[in-house]
# Entry
Amino acid sequence: MTTAAQPLRRNTSNVHVVALNDGVRSQRTDTLAAEEPLEIRIQGPGQDQRSVAVTMRTPGGDFELAVGFLFTEGLIVPGDISRVAYCDTLPGEDQQYNIVSVTLNRPFDFDQLRRNFYATSSCGVCGKAALDDIEVRCAPVASGTRVAAATLLALPTELRKAQKVFERTGGLHAAGLFSSDGVLVSIREDVGRHNAVDKVVGEQVLAGRVPLADHILQVSGRLSFQIVQKAAVA
# Structure
Protein backbone atom coordinates (compact mmCIF):
# COMPACT_ATOMS: atom_id res chain seq x y z
CA MET A 1 0.00 0.00 0.00
CA THR A 2 1.22 3.48 -0.83
CA THR A 3 0.00 6.69 0.71
CA ALA A 4 0.89 9.99 -0.90
CA ALA A 5 2.24 12.77 1.28
CA GLN A 6 -0.41 14.99 2.79
CA PRO A 7 0.30 18.73 2.69
CA LEU A 8 -0.13 20.65 5.92
CA ARG A 9 -3.67 21.97 5.85
CA ARG A 10 -4.84 24.75 8.13
CA ASN A 11 -7.61 23.56 10.41
CA THR A 12 -8.27 27.05 11.75
CA SER A 13 -8.52 30.57 10.36
CA ASN A 14 -8.16 33.98 11.97
CA VAL A 15 -10.97 36.49 11.41
CA HIS A 16 -11.80 39.99 12.63
CA VAL A 17 -14.94 40.13 14.74
CA VAL A 18 -16.94 42.78 16.55
CA ALA A 19 -17.52 41.87 20.19
CA LEU A 20 -20.26 43.37 22.33
CA ASN A 21 -19.74 43.35 26.11
CA ASP A 22 -22.11 45.28 28.40
CA GLY A 23 -23.13 47.44 25.45
CA VAL A 24 -19.54 48.30 24.53
CA ARG A 25 -18.42 47.35 21.03
CA SER A 26 -14.84 46.38 20.33
CA GLN A 27 -12.95 44.78 17.48
CA ARG A 28 -10.64 41.84 17.96
CA THR A 29 -9.24 38.80 16.20
CA ASP A 30 -10.86 35.42 16.78
CA THR A 31 -9.81 31.90 15.77
CA LEU A 32 -12.43 29.79 14.00
CA ALA A 33 -12.47 26.09 13.16
CA ALA A 34 -12.19 25.50 9.42
CA GLU A 35 -14.81 23.57 7.46
CA GLU A 36 -14.46 22.49 3.82
CA PRO A 37 -16.06 19.80 1.66
CA LEU A 38 -14.24 16.53 1.03
CA GLU A 39 -15.18 14.23 -1.83
CA ILE A 40 -14.22 10.57 -1.43
CA ARG A 41 -13.61 8.58 -4.62
CA ILE A 42 -12.87 4.89 -5.11
CA GLN A 43 -11.57 2.66 -7.90
CA GLY A 44 -10.15 -0.78 -8.52
CA PRO A 45 -7.52 -1.94 -11.02
CA GLY A 46 -8.43 -0.75 -14.52
CA GLN A 47 -11.54 1.06 -13.24
CA ASP A 48 -12.36 4.74 -13.45
CA GLN A 49 -12.71 6.69 -10.24
CA ARG A 50 -16.23 7.05 -8.98
CA SER A 51 -17.48 9.39 -6.27
CA VAL A 52 -18.77 7.68 -3.13
CA ALA A 53 -19.44 10.51 -0.70
CA VAL A 54 -19.13 14.19 0.06
CA THR A 55 -18.73 15.30 3.65
CA MET A 56 -18.13 18.64 5.31
CA ARG A 57 -15.04 18.28 7.46
CA THR A 58 -12.18 20.08 9.15
CA PRO A 59 -9.08 19.78 6.91
CA GLY A 60 -6.40 17.45 8.21
CA GLY A 61 -6.32 13.66 8.40
CA ASP A 62 -8.13 13.50 5.05
CA PHE A 63 -6.68 10.12 4.06
CA GLU A 64 -7.65 8.70 7.44
CA LEU A 65 -11.15 10.11 7.03
CA ALA A 66 -11.61 8.60 3.56
CA VAL A 67 -10.35 5.16 4.58
CA GLY A 68 -12.24 5.21 7.87
CA PHE A 69 -15.48 6.14 6.13
CA LEU A 70 -15.19 3.42 3.49
CA PHE A 71 -14.30 0.84 6.15
CA THR A 72 -17.02 1.72 8.66
CA GLU A 73 -19.61 1.84 5.88
CA GLY A 74 -18.73 -1.74 4.95
CA LEU A 75 -17.43 -0.88 1.47
CA ILE A 76 -13.85 -2.12 2.01
CA VAL A 77 -11.80 -4.30 4.33
CA PRO A 78 -8.30 -3.32 5.48
CA GLY A 79 -6.46 -5.58 3.02
CA ASP A 80 -8.20 -3.97 0.03
CA ILE A 81 -6.24 -0.72 -0.02
CA SER A 82 -3.51 -0.24 -2.58
CA ARG A 83 -3.09 3.54 -2.64
CA VAL A 84 -4.57 6.65 -1.04
CA ALA A 85 -3.88 10.07 -2.55
CA TYR A 86 -5.34 13.44 -3.30
CA CYS A 87 -6.94 13.59 -6.72
CA ASP A 88 -4.22 13.83 -9.37
CA THR A 89 -6.62 14.65 -12.21
CA LEU A 90 -7.06 18.26 -11.11
CA PRO A 91 -3.54 19.75 -11.20
CA GLY A 92 -3.47 23.32 -10.05
CA GLU A 93 -7.18 23.50 -9.25
CA ASP A 94 -8.35 24.78 -5.89
CA GLN A 95 -10.35 21.62 -5.18
CA GLN A 96 -7.37 19.29 -5.62
CA TYR A 97 -6.93 18.88 -1.87
CA ASN A 98 -10.66 18.47 -1.30
CA ILE A 99 -10.83 15.20 -3.23
CA VAL A 100 -9.27 11.97 -1.96
CA SER A 101 -8.99 8.89 -4.19
CA VAL A 102 -8.73 5.42 -2.68
CA THR A 103 -7.40 2.75 -5.06
CA LEU A 104 -8.05 -0.90 -4.25
CA ASN A 105 -6.05 -3.96 -5.16
CA ARG A 106 -9.24 -5.68 -6.34
CA PRO A 107 -12.13 -4.63 -8.59
CA PHE A 108 -14.72 -2.62 -6.71
CA ASP A 109 -18.36 -3.65 -7.03
CA PHE A 110 -20.00 -0.36 -7.90
CA ASP A 111 -23.41 -1.93 -7.37
CA GLN A 112 -22.71 -1.33 -3.67
CA LEU A 113 -23.17 2.36 -4.38
CA ARG A 114 -26.94 2.14 -4.61
CA ARG A 115 -27.23 5.29 -2.58
CA ASN A 116 -25.51 8.63 -2.63
CA PHE A 117 -23.78 9.73 0.55
CA TYR A 118 -23.91 13.37 1.51
CA ALA A 119 -22.98 14.13 5.07
CA THR A 120 -23.12 17.49 6.75
CA SER A 121 -20.88 18.06 9.73
CA SER A 122 -23.85 17.63 12.05
CA CYS A 123 -25.50 14.56 10.54
CA GLY A 124 -23.74 11.54 9.11
CA VAL A 125 -26.94 9.96 7.83
CA CYS A 126 -28.26 12.83 5.70
CA GLY A 127 -28.66 11.85 2.06
CA LYS A 128 -29.04 8.11 2.44
CA ALA A 129 -31.75 7.09 0.06
CA ALA A 130 -33.67 4.56 2.11
CA LEU A 131 -33.92 3.40 5.69
CA ASP A 132 -32.93 -0.11 4.66
CA ASP A 133 -29.62 1.27 3.37
CA ILE A 134 -28.59 2.70 6.72
CA GLU A 135 -27.68 -0.63 8.31
CA VAL A 136 -24.04 -1.64 8.00
CA ARG A 137 -23.33 -5.35 8.23
CA CYS A 138 -20.78 -6.43 10.80
CA ALA A 139 -20.11 -9.48 12.91
CA PRO A 140 -21.96 -9.77 16.23
CA VAL A 141 -20.09 -7.89 18.92
CA ALA A 142 -18.60 -10.36 21.39
CA SER A 143 -18.11 -9.73 25.08
CA GLY A 144 -15.43 -7.09 25.42
CA THR A 145 -12.65 -6.28 27.81
CA ARG A 146 -13.76 -5.33 31.30
CA VAL A 147 -13.04 -1.71 32.13
CA ALA A 148 -12.98 -0.25 35.61
CA ALA A 149 -15.73 2.26 36.33
CA ALA A 150 -13.18 4.82 37.48
CA THR A 151 -11.41 4.52 34.12
CA LEU A 152 -14.63 5.14 32.18
CA LEU A 153 -15.56 8.13 34.31
CA ALA A 154 -12.14 9.70 33.70
CA LEU A 155 -12.28 9.45 29.89
CA PRO A 156 -14.29 12.65 29.14
CA THR A 157 -11.78 14.73 31.11
CA GLU A 158 -8.81 13.04 29.43
CA LEU A 159 -10.35 13.61 26.00
CA ARG A 160 -11.02 17.27 26.74
CA LYS A 161 -7.44 17.81 27.95
CA ALA A 162 -6.13 16.50 24.61
CA GLN A 163 -8.34 18.73 22.40
CA LYS A 164 -5.75 21.28 21.29
CA VAL A 165 -7.77 22.84 18.47
CA PHE A 166 -10.91 23.05 20.59
CA GLU A 167 -8.86 24.97 23.14
CA ARG A 168 -8.24 27.65 20.50
CA THR A 169 -11.65 27.69 18.82
CA GLY A 170 -14.28 26.20 21.13
CA GLY A 171 -15.95 24.76 18.06
CA LEU A 172 -14.77 21.20 17.40
CA HIS A 173 -15.82 17.71 18.38
CA ALA A 174 -13.33 14.97 19.13
CA ALA A 175 -12.96 11.20 19.12
CA GLY A 176 -10.35 9.53 21.26
CA LEU A 177 -9.11 5.96 21.15
CA PHE A 178 -8.05 4.69 24.56
CA SER A 179 -6.51 1.50 25.84
CA SER A 180 -8.59 -0.56 28.24
CA ASP A 181 -6.73 0.99 31.17
CA GLY A 182 -7.51 4.54 30.03
CA VAL A 183 -4.31 5.54 28.21
CA LEU A 184 -4.89 7.78 25.19
CA VAL A 185 -3.78 6.08 21.98
CA SER A 186 -5.03 8.59 19.40
CA ILE A 187 -7.26 11.64 19.14
CA ARG A 188 -8.76 13.42 16.15
CA GLU A 189 -10.82 16.64 16.09
CA ASP A 190 -13.38 17.68 13.52
CA VAL A 191 -16.51 19.79 13.12
CA GLY A 192 -18.39 16.48 12.82
CA ARG A 193 -18.34 13.75 15.44
CA HIS A 194 -18.71 11.03 12.82
CA ASN A 195 -15.76 12.49 10.88
CA ALA A 196 -13.59 12.47 14.00
CA VAL A 197 -14.50 8.81 14.54
CA ASP A 198 -13.71 7.92 10.93
CA LYS A 199 -10.33 9.67 11.22
CA VAL A 200 -9.42 7.71 14.34
CA VAL A 201 -10.57 4.41 12.81
CA GLY A 202 -8.96 5.17 9.44
CA GLU A 203 -5.63 5.83 11.13
CA GLN A 204 -5.77 2.39 12.72
CA VAL A 205 -6.84 0.72 9.45
CA LEU A 206 -3.91 2.27 7.57
CA ALA A 207 -1.55 1.14 10.35
CA GLY A 208 -2.91 -2.43 10.25
CA ARG A 209 -4.20 -2.29 13.81
CA VAL A 210 -7.82 -3.37 13.40
CA PRO A 211 -9.87 -4.91 14.91
CA LEU A 212 -9.88 -2.69 17.99
CA ALA A 213 -11.85 -4.92 20.33
CA ASP A 214 -9.56 -4.26 23.30
CA HIS A 215 -9.85 -0.47 23.04
CA ILE A 216 -12.34 2.19 24.12
CA LEU A 217 -13.79 4.91 21.89
CA GLN A 218 -14.67 8.15 23.68
CA VAL A 219 -16.42 10.92 21.76
CA SER A 220 -17.53 14.42 22.61
CA GLY A 221 -21.26 15.13 22.53
CA ARG A 222 -23.98 12.57 22.04
CA LEU A 223 -23.65 9.01 20.79
CA SER A 224 -25.72 8.68 17.63
CA PHE A 225 -26.58 5.20 16.40
CA GLN A 226 -24.18 5.73 13.49
CA ILE A 227 -21.20 6.30 15.77
CA VAL A 228 -22.09 3.16 17.75
CA GLN A 229 -22.37 1.34 14.43
CA LYS A 230 -18.95 2.57 13.30
CA ALA A 231 -17.46 1.43 16.61
CA ALA A 232 -19.06 -2.00 16.16
CA VAL A 233 -17.49 -2.36 12.71
CA ALA A 234 -14.07 -1.32 14.03
Observations:
- The chain has a mean pLDDT of 85.
- Helices lie at 62-72, 149-161, 164-169, 193-206, 225-233.
- The first helix runs from residue 62 to 72.
- The chain is about 25% helix and 30% strand.
